[in-house]
Amino acid sequence: MRFRRLMESVAIFVASVFVLTGGFSKSLGMELIKISEDQTGFVYSTSGKRFVPWGHNYASVDVLKRMEEDPERVARELMEMKQAGTTVARIHPELPRLLSGPKQTNPKGVDGLRRLIDAAERSGIYLKLTGLANYTIADRPVWYDSLSEEERWQAQAFYWETVAGICEKSPAIFAYDLVNEPASVGKPEEGWYTGRMGDVEFCQRLSLNPGKRSGDDILREWTSIMISAIRKKDTYHLITMGMLPFPNAYKAAAEKVDFVSPHLYPKTSKIDEELELLKRFDWGKPIVIGETFPLSCPAEDLREFLLKSRGTAAGWIGHWPDQSPAQLRSLKDSGKASIQNAIWLSWVELFEEIGPQMQR
Fold first, then answer.
1. Does the residue 330 lie in any domain?
2. What is the tally of structural domains in the chain?
3. What Å distances lie between residue 334 and 4, 273, 328, 329, 342, CA to CA?
4. Which residues span the domain enclosing 295?
């Protein structure tokens, strides 16, 4: 315990030093990541060694805002994640901070993304960039939601072309994650967004006027347009999509992407059912579970799910807490930890404990 806390203090100190001094040797010898020849997982492009995505969603709602206001915190937390055994961080660069119009970038947001990538290179953590984040209801730009479907898709393609142009040469990019949990079709009265939690909505609809197009047709067309936009600038980095636990809804998109990324939260005493659901996403491409967490089950059940999912899934991404592991442990030791604190700590400790097994 003393050693672990000492190492946490060292990580925080080291992060502060490289922020102030401009960092260590950039990218720490990172290699580009590609799909393995047997299509079951990932390898480093130069060495050919196996690469296992094992990590966290980070600052899902405000990553560019955080980068703008407190870059030292971002650097420190990337180092803390790395010290905990993280190989991949899933981040969500917000559309309103990157674009100020359908074909106009926001220089401040572009600079923030560049600096975020630089921080990832210095930490040695790979990034899974989830696109088109427009989660906070109060921050949504009027110009974006007033566009027609065709114009909206063009703006989304411009977003991805912009991001790919920034990221194309970075070895720290693991993959582009086209959008978080899209719904193919909605009704005009429903609006573009769904999946509300408090003052945020995490999901978007791709079409409000499908006409004679099926949901699969829309998903194929939209996915193809976004991939084409990325490939104008970046012909190498992998592409995927964040998927709700409904395999039938996303099979059409799976035809286009490089690997599959479902979001699965096991329920108490229903691990076998969740494992069967995971297998339904096996379409002959690698599977990375893009979101998981002891949200609806205790950490012990999640441990069972993660360990048994090896061989079907090739990567796993949970959620990183806003409070550091050291802070969570201090709250626990002082008897001041809330139930929420205890759940977060149970995930961090599980992540650290089974990380070597998951990556072996």
1. yes
2. 1
3. 17, 38, 10, 9, 12
4. 51-359
